[in-house]
Amino acid sequence: MEGIFNLAWVVPIPPFLAFVAIVLFLHPNKRGSALTAIVAVAVSFLLGWGIAFGAFLAKELGLHPVDGELYAIPTGIQELAIGFTVDPANALMLFMVPFLLLMIFIYSSGYMTYPGHLPPSYDPVAYRQGKDPRYSRFFAYISLFATGMLGLVIANNLLMFFVFWEIMGLCSYLLIGFWFEKESAKRAAVKAFITTRIGDALMLIGLILLYIRSEPSTLRFSELFTQANLEQLANTTANLPILGPVPWIALIAVLLFFGTVGKSSQFPLHVWLPDAMEGPTPVSALIHAATMVSAGVFLLIRMFPIYAYAGEVSASSLQFVAFIGAFTALFAATIAVAQWDIKRVLAYSTISQLGYMVAAVGIGAYVAALFHLLTHAFFKALLFLGSGSVIHGVEHGFHHAHGHGNDPEHPEPGSAARVEREDGVLDPEDPQDMRNMGGLLQRMPRTAWTFIIGGLALSGFPIVTSGFWSKDEILASAWDLGRTGVFWTLALAAFLTAFYTMRQIGLTFLGQPRSEGARHAPESVPSMTVPLLLISVFAVGAGWAGIPEKFPVLGGIVPNFIEHFLEPFLEYMNVHPYAPQFHWTPLLVSFGVALGGLAVGYAVYGRGLAPGQIDPLARLLGPLWQLWHRKYFIDELYRDTVVTFTLFLAWLTAKFDRDWVIDWIVNWIGRLAIYLGQGVHTFDAYVVDGLVNAVGWLSDQMGRVVRLLQNGRAQAYLLFGLLVVAIWILLAIMPIVMTLV
Amino acid sequence: MESIVLVVMLFWPLLAALVVLLFGGSDRAVKTSSILMSLVPLALSVYLLWGYDFEAGGIQFQVRAEWIPQINASFRLGVDGLSIPLVFLTALLSTLSLYYSAGVIRHRVKEYFFLFHLLEMSMLGVFVALDYVLFYIFWEISLVPMYFLIGIWGSDNRDYAAVKFFIYTLVGSVAMLLAILAIFFATGTFDILDAAAAQPFSQQLTIASLVFWGLFLGFAFKVPSFPFHTWLPDAHTEAPTAGSVILAGVLLKLGAYGLLRIMLPTLPHAAVFWAPWLVALGAIAIVYGAFVCVAQSDLKRLIAYSSVSHMGYVVLGIGAAAAVMTPEALADLANVFSLSPEALQDSAAMAINGATLQMFNHGIITGALFFLVGILYERAHTRDLFRFGGLSARTPYYYGLMMVAAFASLGLPGLAGFWAEFFTFRGAFAIVPAWAAFGTLGIIITAVYFLYRIIQNVFLGEYDPAKIEHWTTVDGQPAEGPTDVVGFEKLTLWPLVAAMLLIGIYPTPLVEYFNQSALELLNFVSTLS
Fold this sequence. Notes:
The complex is a heterodimer of chains A (741) and B (529).
Chain A: H1 13-26, H2 30-57, E1 66-75, E2 78-86, H3 88-111, H4 124-129, H5 135-154, H6 158-176, H7 183-213, H8 221-224, H9 227-235, E3 237-240, E4 244-247, H10 248-263, H11 272-275, H12 281-290, H13 292-302, H14 304-313, H15 315-337, H16 342-363, H17 366-401, H18 440-443, H19 445-459, H20 466-480, H21 484-509, H22 516-519, H23 526-541, H24 561-572, H25 584-605, H26 616-621, H27 623-629, H28 634-660, H29 662-709, H30 714-740
Antiparallel strand pairs in A: 1-2, 3-4
Helix pairs in contact in A: 1-2, 1-5, 2-3, 2-5, 3-5, 3-12, 3-17, 3-23, 5-6, 6-7, 7-10, 9-14, 10-13, 10-14, 10-15, 12-17, 13-16, 13-17, 14-15, 15-16, 15-21, 15-27, 16-17, 16-20, 16-21, 17-19, 17-20, 17-23, 19-21, 19-23, 20-21, 20-25, 21-25, 28-29
Chain B: H1 5-23, H2 27-51, E1 60-68, E2 73-79, H3 83-104, H4 109-128, H5 132-141, H6 143-153, H7 158-187, H8 192-198, H9 205-222, H10 231-238, H11 241-266, H12 268-294, H13 299-322, H14 327-336, H15 341-380, H16 391-394, H17 396-409, H18 416-431, H19 433-439, H20 441-459, H21 487-505, H22 508-526
Antiparallel strand pairs in B: 1-2
């Protein structure tokens, strides 16, 4: 049984092979590409579940996690080992991730149909097949993504974790920009990558510092979390500029946390996730709800001993984590209340729920954070896939209403005149705007009921749904640990969550249809609805694995599997396992906010809206609602500060380099050399050469004189000879004459 | 075999050059024979990779003969873990460049290929020479063919670029020559290893500093290190495609190689003293170069500036290692950071590994990027970023190749560039944390210029046929729109792309060579008093 653990490194490989095969060979064959991708991920799924259930059944896996080495990179005298691990934390992930991957791959094969906004002439072959022109490319990308996520889950060291973390970032970028002809999609893709990269750069610094300061120098989880190393990290300090001495462990914890802030889209780096909804909906479900964004929280889970020890020596570092999480949970929930795009509501909801998990880690509730991560992945994937099904249906509805789509007589969706409304601009043919929906419960019952199940789980509908148990665990922990600020912030966020979820259900499925699209929306194909049904089983049932033992009536009937499974592992990592004591207050609050939010939501939106009716809440709250609707104007703020400043700085350095300073100096040195050369040339021509010429001229002139003598007449030479002799005689006899005188 | 492999490898390109010059018949014959002959040094470099004995370590495949006894200059060649991968890189890029050039060079073919072989010889010579005179001769020879390659086959502003390139690097060479002479007069030998062992000027910091800066200027102009880099954007932009590939891929590495082979071991005390300057120049180059890239609108110039940024990692890594080049400095820093000296020494090894990996990876990655720019230019006849768009759908194969190269260049884990950046920062953070932290800003800005400038403008969005009216195929035939890469272009790029992937997934074999030489360097300086 345990032998299968040594195959954990194989789990990410089949999707990678599928990726390579599709990119190199299979891409002309759309069906073949999809089939290959699905089969590959099914292999990973079977292996992943084999390992997961093996781990669930294994005795005390937590105390003896599997840690295998694949190869090592030399680093001076030591080596950096690359390998895989199986422990309770990633066994739970191996239960959730491959299952959702498989479901969403299957769903995608039905979802990625030929887009309505493209004319058939764009790609006649794809049009005939009824598949997206880039169908194969889509499956290549999500296969690579699957490799990234599965690799991250099995990584046995933080560096490898980071490698796969970034590969997912690449896939996220590629898939958000999948419909890159759209201006908004292309911008969203770039924004997503660069925003998360800011967090990743800080995370990389934290990772490197951890690598440097650990004794022995390592990034392997099994070696990092020894008592000696953790204490040594907590007891030595870094001298930072301004902040002064800070325990290394706290500095590292905060830096690593920025990786989570970027990846899990926490404030202030949350801006990319809502825009990421430009990607195809299965991508939103898979990457931007269930797996990649929760990998940010999984990082905190993985590094939990660091946070536990950091909290002891520097409480503020852990408070910072809790604050960001709780603040984001509430902040994003308020925005979600005032959105119209069905996917954007869910995006903000995801940000808010991730804030919950981050806050849970921040208060030290490891089990609760991981538990909520798992349950959230199921119900949020379900909600996104449901919304995809809705969008699909409404889009088809619009086409149906226009006779057959792509008819030049009729405008395509998105080209209709926009309507300025008190509650925001409305495109009356936008298949994602909930104001164009309503009454879909009758048209799309399977989608509607599974969506409602997911929505109730998200709201934390008591006892039945998984969301209740995991959210309650977080609230109970916050209360039990005396973190009242966090508790009430999260409680308020939970109320808003239930409220906006009911609003979404009301606007989408209840009341009367408000557009032609909603009136004619068909139910989706089985390859889409069957995964919805399967996931909804877990959206409800996954919570029963973590019912607290002290819970009134139910407690103890079903064993608290998650806690028992994880506790030994925490001990192995030298962290005190924590389980909240039972208190009535958090339980009642938990009941109250969930039911209260749903009730208020039902009271306002339970009958949907009438066609053309303004959102009652927008009327009621006025400017506050507008502030939420416009997302607190943070996008605009960043655009006018960070982006503008960066571009200005780039322009300035380029000018500095080429025109103003560096190349200016170089060119001037060059020019000076030329001027100098010209000066030397002048000197040379007039002074040096002048002298030479003067000498020449002089000799020439002398030559002229002398030439007079050289006239070739013998008698002249004779005369000259005589003259010389005469002078010579004269000179010779001169002294004698002188003596005589 | 052991003894002559380097001689054959080194002078084979010279032979090839002469064959091309004297016997080259038709253009076709010149091209074919050039490509075939360039396979010999490539095969021999693979033999070096395969035959290097890690157990024994040190310099291997040595050749030593008396040459000019009057000045104690000998003909000494040899390679170690540092030079072997670089020799391989040189031979690989030369072969690929010749192969690609065969497809696109149409006039003055014989001279072009003649010069290219000469260039290959000079580059190989620098990497295998172990004598200063020999080293300097090859160093200088490398200027000449490149000058003509830019000046004859370059684009519009080629004269300016060629002269700037030549004079700029010549200034550096003069400084280096003076330093080499100083070392000769102090040690009485031109042997690079013997001179290092003699430790000239180890007690005279002032003179040592002068010599250090002489060497550094020579190498820094070549690297090029900020602020001596402005020849690079012009030379890279104006050079023909294969010229840019060789410039970025190999010629820049000559400078960095000199820093490691000569400067650190010969002048460790001066290196420790001036290390903060090297580190600062490296870190500034990373960030500064990246910012300049963001403001470019010429695709080729952008890639050229990215070299400034990426070579900054090399200088940063080498500078960090320089700071612990003496046992005293190592002990001092270990004390300051409360780390064990062994841990700090390993960090220095990682800094060097990062720098050397970056040298190799930058060679294959930026080499590939310049090929890709050339491929686009052959079709569009413009390099203006804003005149493209939507190529992702029109030329998917080209897009795929560009994505791999671009993401490798921006340091995406799983591709080659990441390991270099990671190890450079890992080493630098242990030794010079503040500058290393500043340098990490480059990671973000690099993503900005690749994604926001290149990918977004060239590949995403709608394809607009009005922006470029005269597309051609690679053969110069008029075309309706952008055409995807053809066979010979694919074959040129695949080895590079494959290397990026392989090194990205499994870097161990390559790192082993570099790590070997890094450890040898650190052991060498740790035994000095």
